[in-house]
Amino acid sequence: MSSKLREIEIGTAAEKHFKNLGFDVYNEVDCDRRGIDMVLLKDDLTYAFELKTSLNLQVIYQASLNLEYANFSSIIVPSRKFDSIFYFCKDFLRDMGIGFYTYKAFSINETIQEIVSPNKNENPKGLRLFHEHKNDNIAGSPNGSRFTPFKETCENVVSFLESNDGCTIGQLVQGIKHHYNTPASAKSALIKRINQGVVNGVKIDNGKIYKITT
After folding, report:
1. Where in the sequence is the domain holding 10, given as residue range(s)?
2. Is residue 144 a part of any domain in this protein?
C-alpha cells in the first residue's frame, strides 16, 4: 500500500490536519544546510516533522537531527500492520524522544494518528521560519525548493534596486537586511555571487549594482 503513496500526498494530508488543529504550517524549512519537511508553530513552540512513504532508518535519522533545533521532533509514515518491526520502531522512537505519527490513506477519511508523543526540548537552537515557507511548497514535494536566508537576501537586493539602481555595494549592504555576519563579509560574498550570476536579475558594471533589464 505504502509503495503507491507519494510523500506529497502525506504532506498534503498532514498540512490540512494540523491547520485544522490551529497550527501554522511551514514546509521545506532550511536547517543547517539541509531541509526539514514540515515545521509547525503554535504558542511559540516548534514541531519538526519528517515524512516518508515507509518506516525506515533514514526517516528516523533525519528526525534525530531535528531534536536539537525544534521543541519537538516527529516522523509521519503510512500506517502499517502491527508487526514486530512496528513495535520495535515504536519503542525505539519513544526511547529517543521522537514522535511517531501514521497516515492512513485509501479510506473514506484520511487520518493522521499519533502513536508516540515526542519529548519536549526546552532550549532548542531554533529555526528561521519565513512567510514563503507557507506558500512555496507542500511538504514532500519532489520538486520543492527550500526558502533559505540566502534567497531572502537575494530578494532584498532586487527590491532595494527598484529605487536605488546604480548604487554602490556599500550602499546596498547598508540598505538591506541580509544573513551575513558582518557588512564586510556581505560585501565580498555578494560581489562574488553577483559576478557568478547567482543573484538573478542583478549585475555589476563599473563598480555599481544594477538590475538587469530585458
Report:
1. 2-135
2. no
**Residue 205 CA: distances (Å) to CA of 158, 190, 212:** 16, 14, 11
Looking at residue 123, its amino acid is N
Which residue has cell 526539514? 36
pTM here is 0.67
Q: For the sheet containing 45-51, what is the strand order?
A: 24-31, 34-42, 45-51, 72-78, 99-104, 111-116
Q: Read off the pLDDT of residues 190-205 as tens digits, 9 standing for 90 and up.
A: 998 898 888 888 999 9
pLDDT digits (tens, 9 = 90+) for 45-104: 999 999 999 999 999 999 999 999 999 999 999 988 889 999 999 999 999 999 999 998
- Same domain, residue pair 35 and 98: yes
* Number of compact structural domains in the chain: 2
Q: Please choose, from the candidates 5, 47, 17, 7, the residue with its C-alpha nearest in 3D space to the C-alpha of residue 29.
A: 47
Q: Are 117 and 131 in contact (CB under 8 A)?
A: no
Phi first, then psi: what are they for 114, rounded to 5°?
Answer: -85, 125
